[in-house]
């Protein structure tokens, strides 16, 4: 097992998640899935691991990352490329080559190993029909297909461009088109995911019914036993002396043991050259919280504005800035007062607070315990306190 801190964990680098994958396969037998997962818990790794074992479940798969697609046509083109490059691409192409679909492709080039490259012209045909024809062709093949689409919410937000009000109809059309595909072509299963919650984006745009046919699947941090197992596996693979007491200290300090943060801390401990002690763990964490490693945590702040829009992101920032002041977090009543100046109407404020707390809990920022909301991750809380929240006002 390699110590993976940036790339997707694939093959022997992937650890556990057997229970989550088994549940996903059970759900996919009858439904399409929306995978909700906070950043850094291994969402993409899980999807790719499922793709490795999909044949045993009776599925052919295509994994598509659409985060860099600029428009709907490029989105559909990415689907075609991923599916045709599968090992049954020849059979699929033989079916569509002489059809209307084959004639609308602007350029198709056969490459070695059963793969294709292709390009659509903006004038070839509507992207909606191109996508429907592809789903129809897939549904006529023997067996079942699983299409995994990663970072779909990022693509959806790109469609909004810089004018949310004007582009809302465009997003609505795209998401309802995808819903029609899911409902019409039942031989194709879809697994949609992203580091931003698609449920939050659709709620923000008031089109939540565009995804209400999807079964929700969730992925969180490891439990303590699994986190310890990962540390043991890494220690054995890299010959690092990490005893049970030190491993427990790592998990305690991380608090919310997402695989990424466990891998990061282990990476800091690998070069010590002797038995690791608790103080080494503390120094490693202090280093990770320094300004030189800001990129490990700052996405949590950035994604609020991508996911929520500026007004609601500002409210969410205010709530998080207050919650980070204490390990125990804040009560709901206190958090309502945080929003009181900006939202004086009590009913409107309660609606907004309920929505934002749901988002912050679902996305892995906060957890509720004993009527209080505190940060899930002590590491993220410490980073937020040091690098994001404004200093507390004091009397001079």
Question: What distinguishing features does this structure have?
Answer:
396 residues, alpha/beta, 5-stranded parallel sheet, 3-stranded antiparallel sheet, 18 helices, 52% helix, globular
How do the strands and helices of this protein lay out in sequence?
Elements: H1 18-28, E1 33-36, H2 43-52, E2 59-65, H3 72-84, H4 89-96, H5 100-104, E3 107-110, E4 116-119, H6 127-139, E5 144-150, H7 152-160, H8 164-184, E6 188-194, H9 198-204, E7 215-218, H10 224-238, H11 244-254, H12 259-269, H13 278-288, H14 299-308, H15 310-323, E8 330-331, H16 332-340, H17 346-362, E9 366-369, E10 372-375, H18 378-388
Parallel strand pairs: 1-6, 1-7, 2-5, 5-6
Antiparallel strand pairs: 3-4, 8-10, 9-10
Helix pairs in contact: 3-6, 7-8, 10-11, 10-12, 11-13, 12-13, 14-15, 16-17
Structure overview:
The chain is α/β, with parallel strands linked by helices and 396 residues long. Helices cover 52% and strands 12% of the residues. The protein is built from 18 helices and ten strands.
Provide a brief overview of the structure.
By secondary structure, the protein is an alpha/beta fold.
**In total, how many beta strands?**
10
| First-residue to last-residue Cα separation | 55 Å
User: Helices and strands, in N-to-C order?
Assistant: HEHEHHHEEHEHHEHEHHHHHHEHHEEH
What is the helix fraction of residues, given as a range? Answer: 40-55%
Note the quaternary state here.
Answer: single chain
Q: Which structural class do you get from the secondary structure elements?
A: alpha/beta
